[in-house]
Amino acid sequence: MEAIKAQVRERESGNYVRELRRKGWVPAVVYGTDVSNLAIQIEGRALDAVLRTQATNKPFRLVVDGQEHDVMVYELQRHPLAGNILHADFKAINMNEKIHTTVPVLMTGDPELGVATLVRHSVEISCLPGNIPESFTVNVDGLNIGDVVLVQDLQIPAGVDVGLDSMEVLISILPVKAASEESLDAAEDAAETAEAAGSTEESKKV
């Protein structure tokens, strides 16, 4: 398991946090059953290095002033332009107790005909932290229009329980036109949602 050294964060003021970031530190918080909102600071480069080598849904170890905590990433806040991590929330876990989390569904290959479309981008699972797969990868080579990939088609590791019906559709092979229309519908729905949100904000101002 990857390990990162961290330090207890002394102060919470905005000026202090900004100064930490300027020096390359990431302010963070650890919480859990045995940890009560522990404010810490981590070297940004060390955190980035771990997140480049493993998925954010995998556990790692924080060593805070010599005390070890097994944690998982709960939330990361990144700069909208630079992409660097501004703040991190970690959840302390027990490596011997099952947890609930999500695993992304990824596709490789190309269908014989049609376009492969993800119906579900992630799958809910339950397992020990050390058994969490980074992803469920599905090869769609050779599939044709009308074919689907179901939950039961996944290669699920031993000790991992999936919280979906085995017949749930994860990937569907659609005609090119249908896939384009589906994308257009999704874009239109997003636009309508944004417009509705904007109207709500305007009404609040009035």
TrEMBL record:
InterPro entries: Rbsml_bL25/Gln-tRNA_synth_N, Ribosomal_bL25/Gln-tRNA_synth, Ribosomal_bL25_b-dom, Ribosomal_bL25_C, Ribosomal_bL25_long, Ribosomal_L25_dom, Ribosomal_uL5_bac-type. This is one of the proteins that binds to the 5S RNA in the ribosome where it forms part of the central protuberance. GO terms for biological process: translation. Residues 4-90 form the Large ribosomal subunit protein bL25 L25 domain. Residues 98-175 form the Large ribosomal subunit protein bL25 beta domain. It comes from Brevibacillus panacihumi W25. The gene is rplY. Residues 184-206 are annotated as: Disordered. Keywords: Ribonucleoprotein, Ribosomal protein, RNA-binding, rRNA-binding. It comes from the Bacteria. One of its GO terms (cellular component) is cytosolic large ribosomal subunit. Belongs to the bacterial ribosomal protein bL25 family. CTC subfamily. This is Large ribosomal subunit protein bL25. GO terms for molecular function: 5S rRNA binding; structural constituent of ribosome.
